[in-house]
Amino acid sequence: MQKRFTQRLATAILLLGLAGSFPLLALDEPQTATLADPGSSTQSAEEQALRKRVSERWDAVLKMDFDRVYTFASPAYRQVHTKAHFFNQYGGQIKRNRIEILRVQFVDADTGKPAPAGVTTDKAIVHLNVYYNLVPDFGDPFETTSYNKEAWVKVDGEWWRVEPH
Description:
CATH superfamily: NTF2-like, domain 1
Structural class: alpha+beta
Number of strands: 4
Radius of gyration: 17 Å
Oligomer: single chain
Shape: globular
Low-confidence stretches: 1-38
């Protein structure tokens, strides 16, 4: 009985860790507000371009196409880490349903602090919700949400996801 409880507890902890996204994510600031659509005229062209890249990457994640997901990793990451390393890092991922980009926060490269409103930089934090189904041992499956933060960097005119090493 104790062994079964321990296994279930370990599974629950693992699922909670994987539920959000990949590493570099926090579950500490749940968000529910939806910001303007990716094509909104209130967003800069730079923010729209970043939102497009984030959406494209997450389309691949939702399809569990990790060959494609790897192509969104920063050039610096891909120079150091092989696809095999990447796949091992993210093996056993849960199936996610959808995402919702909440906001994009550009970051001052020198200070690491948020850039002033309306200022775009080559570094950003993307705040998003990830929706997935949880299937408990007892009861009905239900959809739940995980709040995430992803670091992105612009290199040679393109936005790249900063993967944890």
